[in-house]
């Protein structure tokens, strides 16, 4: 029996419509329907922890998978403890285009929003 956790949008973490649309576009552009957005947390950055984003074809048995509008977002168990309740969004502006995390667990963030502390 698999321990993969699958969540709908309203549970645990969310992905905005803008982020889901961008992921869908990027997956279609790559021509690989097996790609999933992986969101993770690593040590570093100016506030202690740093958000990371990559595309992954492989889903580990203990990954949490959040689906919306035909796309999937993966989060490993270690990162999930820091990201529970967060929303992944996508923005385009003067600073360029980027995925970002709106994290209610963060007690402080850096100016660009790519790192945080708890």
Give the helix/strand layout.
Blueprint: E1 5-7, E2 14-15, H1 17-30, E3 36-43, E4 49-56, E5 64-68, E6 71-75, H2 77-83, E7 87-93, E8 96-102, E9 108-109, E10 115-117
Parallel strand pairs: 1-5, 2-7, 3-6
Antiparallel strand pairs: 3-4, 4-10, 5-6, 7-8, 9-10
Brief sketch in words of this structure:
Helices cover 18% and strands 42% of the residues.
Explain this structure to me?
The protein is an alpha/beta fold and 118 residues long. Helices cover 18% and strands 42% of the residues. The protein contains 2 helices and 10 strands, in the order ββαββββαββββ. The protein has a 7-stranded mixed beta sheet with strand order 1-5-6-3-4-10-9. A 3-stranded mixed beta sheet has the order 2-7-8. A hairpin with a 2-residue loop joins strand 7 and strand 8. The radius of gyration is 14 Å and the shape is globular. About 4% of the residues have low confidence.
Secondary-structure element sequence? Answer: EEHEEEEHEEEE
Query: What is the distance, rounded to the nearest whole angstrom, between the alpha carbons of the first and last residues?
Result: 34 Å
Strand content: 35-45%
Structural class: alpha/beta
Share of helix, binned:
10-25%
């Amino acid at each position: 029996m698999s321990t993969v956790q699958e969540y709908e949008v309203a549970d645990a973490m969310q992905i905005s419509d803008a982020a889901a649309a961008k992921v869908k576009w990027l997956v279609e552009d790559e021509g690989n329907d097996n790609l999933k957005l992986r969101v993770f947390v690593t040590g570093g950055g100016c506030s202690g922890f740093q958000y990371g984003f990559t595309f992954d074809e492989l889903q580990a048995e203990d990954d949490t998978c959040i689906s919306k509008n035909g796309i999937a977002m993966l989060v490993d168990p270690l990162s999930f403890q820091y990201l529970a309740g967060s929303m992944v969004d996508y923005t385009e502006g003067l600073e360029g285009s980027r995925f970002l995390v709106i994290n209610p667990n963060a007690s402080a963030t850096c100016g660009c929003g790519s790192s945080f502390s708890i």
